[in-house]
Amino acid sequence: MWKRIDHQLKIKAGDGPQAGQFKELGPGREPAVPHPLSLSEFQTVPVFEDISQHVKEVGSQLVKKVNAIFQLDITKDGKTVHQWTIDLKNGSGDTYRGPARLPADTVFTIPEPVFMELILGKMNPQKAFLAGKFKVSGKVLLGQKLERVFKDWAKW
After folding, report:
1. CB environment 129-143: b (16+ within 10 A), e (fewer)
2. DSSP one-letter code for 35
3. Structural domain contains residue 104
4. Is 16 part of a structural domain of the chain?
5. φ, ψ for residue 133 (rounded to 5)?
6. Number of domains, the chain
7. How many Å apart are CA 64 and CA 18, to the nearest integer?
8. CATH code at 104?
């Protein structure tokens, strides 16, 4: 029979010399296999962190040019695993993890491999959208402004 006392696993040793005695097993261990959706597995995390740094440096200029809020839902196996927001409408711009704090003008639902190909310039965004590789809701034409932001970031 298992009992948990003081956050350490203990087992009742019924066949020991003294009935009712507890044997300490030691502290619990971390699972041998990491969580399947750990942040280190995603290539988009460092990309968005770098984009965030870029927005901090030139955000006020981008706000004047773009004037929109973009939410990007990054998916894996059809499930959203990350949400990022690029706010180029308010203040001097901001990029943060999570859903848009204010209503997003455009929401992209995009698989991570497709996003990485778009960011690296290996795939044309218009052709990918028309081929159904990702979904866009809201003001679809603002996607062209986001494409320019990504190209500007790539040169940075």
Report:
1. beeebbebebeeebb
2. P
3. yes
4. no
5. -75, -25
6. 1
7. 78
8. 3.30.1050.10
